[in-house]
Amino acid sequence: MSVDADLLLDWFADTARDLPWRRPECTAWGVLVSEIMLQQTPVARVEPIWHEWLARWPLPSDMARASQGEVLRAWGKLGYPRRALRLHAAAGAIAEHHGDVVPADVDTLLALPGIGAYTARAVAAFAYGRRCPVVDTNVRRVVARAVHGAGDAGPPSTTRDLADVEAILPAEQSVAARYSAALMELGALVCTARSPRCADCPVFADCAWQRAGRPAYAGPAKAVQRFAGTDRQVRGLLLDVLRDTSEPVFKAKLDIVWPDGGQRERCLHSLLVDGLVEQTGDGRFALPGEH
DNA sequence: GAACCGTGGAT
DNA sequence: TATCCAAGGTT
Fold first, then answer.
1. What pLDDT digit, counting tens, does each position of A127-142 carry?
2. Staple partner for A145: which of A74, A108, A209, A290, CB 3.0–4.6 Å?
3. 8 A C-beta contact, residue A136 and residue A164
4. 3-state class of A286 per DSSP?
């Protein structure tokens, strides 16, 4: 059982969104920036920031010359700001060690900060046309349904997930990358998590899940992450204060964003440890590298 | 493998 | 209103 390449690619040619990082003129650096930004953040929120970043920092070396604080400020509220710091570090490594050219080799990409199993292969495939399995949450869900006949993907296992997709990836290098992009697009637009639009699906007739009568997901319950009241929320509030000021702030300014002093201290400390916040000589706090 | 790391729109 | 979920990575 697999996902028919002709049906999928025809559908993709007709239906795919016109996203800027998919255009032929987009550089590998543009692809890398998009992949980092898209980690756990929806396309609609990424797109405007991506345009700003590529206009401001068209090359890795351009970004490497910016301060961490500038990059964090430009990241805005995309979330998980450690991604911005890691991308900045990756830009520095690419400028220093790779001639200002984003590597095309999966293992070389994996060695860069913030680039894991998904992003390394996404860059190799989408920026350089390499034939390698690209497995994100959309692909996992499409494969679980269309190939395995399950209601949803089970817990992730990089080794198994990569093997699953390798098994259905077209052999020709020239079509493999488009096939991966099409699988992702199918998961994003049609084979969605909540209400799949099976009536619009190009591979409906071959879908193992549909043929099995669309049984409900039978695997272990997925852990839902809380947000309200967590350190994640408090760190976000603290960082928001620093993003909004050009000058370092006194601690009193940070104390007002959250009532629980113990949690506040813990979060501020972890932000310092993570390098997302810096303390100035006079004891004030700021984004890193700007003072 | 599990916990942790932001944010906001959709349902 | 509460929950779900979005092109993951690191520890």
1. 999 999 999 999 999 9
2. A209
3. no
4. strand
Q: Give residue A90's Cα distance to chain centre.
A: 15
Distance in angstroms (rounded) separating the CA atoms of residues A153 and A236? 30
Largest CA distance in chain A: 68
Q: How far apart are CA A261 and CA A247, in angstroms?
A: 23
pLDDT band at A174 (very low <50, low <70, confident <90, very high): confident
Average pLDDT (A28-36) is 98
Domains of chain A from N-terminus onward: 231-286 (1.10.10)
- Give the pLDDT band (50/70/90) at residue A2: confident
A107 CB below 7 A from strand C atoms = no
Secondary structure class of A285 (helix, strand, coil): strand
Q: What is the distance between the terminal CA atoms of chain A, rounded to a whole angstrom? A: 59
- Tokens encoding A271: 């932000």
More confident position, A51 or A291: A51
> Which residue bears the tokens 């970043």?
A53
CA of A109 to C1' of B6 (A): 25
Burial A66-100 (b: 16+ CB within 10 A, else e): bebbbbbbbbeebebbebbbbbbbbbbebbeeeee
Strand B at less than 7 A from CB of A226: no
Whether A35 is a known active-site residue: answer yes
pLDDT value for A223: 83
Rounded CA separation A23/A42 (Å): 19
DSSP A55: H
pLDDT interval class at A276 (50, 70, 90): very high
